[in-house]
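Hello forum,

I keep getting stuck at the same step: I have a sequence, I want structure tokens, and every attempt I make locally crashes halfway through. Rather than fight my setup again tonight, could one of you with a working pipeline run this one for me? It's a single chain of 213 residues.
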Amino acid sequence: MSGKAIGLYEVSRTLIDWLSNNDTLHTIEQSAFDFWREALSVVHVVRLAEMGKTNRLSAMSALRQFNEETGHNLSYEDARDLTYSRLFSPEGEWVVFTDNPIEVLLGREDDITDALITAPDSVQWAIIWLVAEHQILVIQSPWGNTREPINEYASEGLRPGTVPTSVLPPDIEAALRYDIDGERDSEDSSSDYGVHETAICEMEEFMENHYGQ
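Reply #2:
Ran it on my machine without issues. Output:
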């Protein structure tokens, strides 16, 4: 990891539009991440066959055993390219946006947050959209700035502070601040404060579940 805190942002249409239309970023849905964790051992056998370190027959045998045990129909090409279209993604799953999905999927960590935090330097972008919590976590980013800490793991993405934090690009943050200013013009400020405090509490609970003892 870069050593920077995680940047927390509340979900907005501007932010989702930027993530969805960014040609640099690819998505990994929760169901796909879980599937490839289950298939990781056979994927490594296939990759060894591609590198000439084992024979293709061994890889095909491992694939056959995996499919028999799991009921899947994973092909050699699927395992080689990490593409498998026969997955169901329930509504409300988290979604990762990253510039290097292969490295994320090939990691050893079963928890997605740990997988992104420990991702190699070749992963420059690692962002999680927590759909159910209405939050965006910027875990890896080429952009960094100092932000107001929430706890020892995370900072508020748009509030200046003293903690080095992974943040969104300046132009996207400017658009988000513009959206927030527009909302505050039309809503009672005390209502905004309540929503913001709820987001912070949810973030602290999320990080405590992952790292608290």
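Residues 1-23+140-213 form one domain. If your local run keeps crashing, start a new thread with the error log.
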